[in-house]
């Protein structure tokens, strides 16, 4: 262990030989898009900044690696840009370092002038309805991590062979990703970077019907046209949409008129409802869009106690709540949908760490343009000096990868303003331990650090094994495999 830390130090000392003796020490927590965009912008904006990125995983890139669907390789090209940032002479990456257990937030703030928290949202919102803990019910995040080879979810116990029907709660892009992976022929996924354990399970899957269920109507569907077009384009797939659900109210017409994306989504759904066959052929896979339903109870199976057997839904209508906003409210009418698996795509949730102000209701860190506030009062005079946020932790789990670019620009602008105004002046001109202090602390705690060249070894192994299977890479999906490959 000591030797591993020594090797990391030796490698880094060569890279940072040209850095000034008292640089501005910046630590970014989280190596997803928000973290890397922050590091990139900081390096470019402040020539005296030394930026360290830490992540609890041995692998960088966050949701680009573990969230983007395997059949969307073009979305992952951004890792080339992030890799260039990690290889910058004033930047370093330290994987397998967990904020909260490897070291505390208070310790990190002592080591660095500036700490930017960009670790995203690694938990899930809950519905809080009866039966939510039944076997066969999972979050969409867990399913996505499972098929993307995230080491926390390799052993996820999915009911793929015990049922032919899955219900997905939600109609956003993540929900559509999940539906597409369940319904696409496994032969088409075999040449992607999907995890091998997921491919093997999907090849044996009995799932033939997928229901995408939303609280609101087709006009309010939260997906984008690109994602919808992709799932509708799966070959030999039966699509079912109730034409009654497609009837628009004057308020719907107004929404569509003012939103090009919603209009395009509605047009695609309408076209899908009126083309194709009236009934599925025998053995044909089916995708059903169900609107105006909210889950009320998850049903327990009579044959397999403790397993989900269906969802009891309440029908909904849209109600005006002022300000041009409408919400789905229950009508008191109910119906059931039988299934053996439920995937909840109702939103990710950020998790706080000790010493971090947190708005539990909104699921974000209270902040003004990335500056962390003492509490949720939004009093701009109560700032946590030197502490900033970016990404989902800052604004909530919304947007696409590029959204984090603008988010990072705003946070970095706040850091630079604080430096110019002297808010950080006393700290920025006094030495901080930074990287050396971080490595010393982790060394004393026997934390096995994975630097960027360790990730490059993982990357090389995955690509080499993948090429033998006609895949871009074969992901290492356990902690043991990842840590071993990082040191070979």
UniProtKB/TrEMBL annotation:
Catalysis performed (reactions): 2 reduced [adrenodoxin] + NADP(+) + H(+) = 2 oxidized [adrenodoxin] + NADPH
Task: Name the keywords, alphabetized.
Answer: FAD, Flavoprotein, Mitochondrion, NADP, Oxidoreductase
Q: Does the keyword Cell wall biogenesis/degradation apply?
A: no
Q: Which domain of life is it from?
A: Eukaryota
Tell me which stretches of the chain form a coiled coil.
none
Q: Where does NADP(+) bind?
A: 171-174, 215-216, 227, 399
Q: Which residues bind FAD?
A: 34, 63, 99, 392, 399-401
The cofactors it requires, by name, are: FAD
Compartment annotation: Mitochondrion
Record-level GO cellular component terms: mitochondrion
Question: Which Gene3D superfamilies does the entry link to?
Answer: FAD/NAD(P)-binding domain (3.50.50.60), NAD(P)-binding Rossmann-like Domain (3.40.50.720)
Q: What is its EC number?
A: 1.18.1.6
Q: Which family does it belong to?
A: Belongs to the ferredoxin--NADP reductase type 1 family.
Report what the protein is called: NADPH:adrenodoxin oxidoreductase, mitochondrial
**Species the sequence originates in:** Juglans regia
């Amino acid at each position: 262990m000591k030797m591993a830390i020594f090797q990391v130090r030796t490698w880094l000392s060569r890279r940072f030989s040209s850095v000034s003796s008292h640089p501005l020490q910046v630590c970014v927590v989280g190596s997803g898009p928000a973290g890397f965009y922050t590091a990139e912008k900081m390096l470019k904006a402040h020539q005296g900044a030394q930026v360290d990125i830490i992540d609890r995983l041995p692998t960088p890139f966050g949701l680009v690696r573990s969230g983007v669907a395997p059949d969307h390789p073009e979305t992952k090209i951004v890792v080339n840009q992030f890799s260039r940032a990690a290889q910058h002479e004033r930047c370093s990456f330290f994987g397998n370092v967990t904020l909260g257990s490897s070291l505390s937030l208070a310790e990190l703030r002592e080591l660095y002038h500036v700490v930017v928290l960009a670790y995203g949202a690694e938990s899930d919102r809950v519905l809080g309805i009866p039966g939510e803990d039944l076997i066969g019910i999972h979050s969409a995040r867990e399913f996505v991590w499972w098929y993307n080879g995230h080491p926390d979810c390799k052993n996820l116990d999915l009911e793929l062979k015990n049922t032919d029907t899955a219900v997905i709660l939600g109609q956003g892009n993540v929900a559509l990703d999940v539906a597409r992976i369940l319904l696409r022929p496994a032969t088409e996924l075999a040449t992607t970077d999907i995890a091998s354990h997921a491919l093997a399970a999907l090849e044996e899957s009995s799932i033939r019907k997928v229901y995408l269920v939303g609280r609101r109507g087709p006009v309010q569907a939260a997906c984008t046209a690109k994602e919808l077009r992709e799932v509708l384009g799966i070959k030999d797939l039966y699509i079912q949409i109730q034409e009654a659900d497609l009837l628009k109210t004057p308020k719907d017409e107004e929404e569509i008129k003012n939103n090009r994306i919603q209009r395009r989504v509605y047009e695609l759904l309408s076209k899908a409802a009126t083309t194709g066959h009236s009934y599925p052929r025998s053995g044909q896979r089916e995708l059903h869009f169900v609107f105006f339903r909210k889950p009320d109870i998850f049903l327990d199976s009579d044959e397999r106690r403790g397993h989900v057997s269906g969802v009891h839904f309440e029908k909904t209508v849209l109600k005006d709540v002022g300000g041009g906003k409408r919400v789905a409210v229950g009508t008191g009418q109910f119906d059931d949908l039988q299934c053996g698996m439920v995937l909840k795509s109702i939103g990710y949730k950020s998790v706080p760490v000790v010493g971090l102000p947190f708005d539990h209701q909104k699921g974000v860190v209270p902040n003004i343009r990335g500056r962390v506030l003492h509490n949720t009062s939004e009093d701009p005079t109560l700032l946590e000096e030197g502490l900033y946020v970016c990404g989902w932790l800052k604004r909530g789990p919304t947007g696409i990868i590029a959204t984090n670019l603008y988010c990072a620009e705003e946070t970095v602008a706040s850091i630079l303003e604080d430096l110019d105004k002297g808010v950080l002046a006393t700290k920025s001109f006094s030495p901080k331990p930074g990287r050396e202090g971080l490595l010393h602390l982790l060394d004393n705690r026997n934390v096995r650090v994975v630097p960027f060249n360790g990730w490059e070894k993982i990357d090389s192994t995955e690509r080499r094994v993948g090429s033998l299977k006609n895949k871009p890479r074969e992901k290492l999906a356990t902690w043991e495999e990842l840590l071993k490959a990082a040191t070979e």
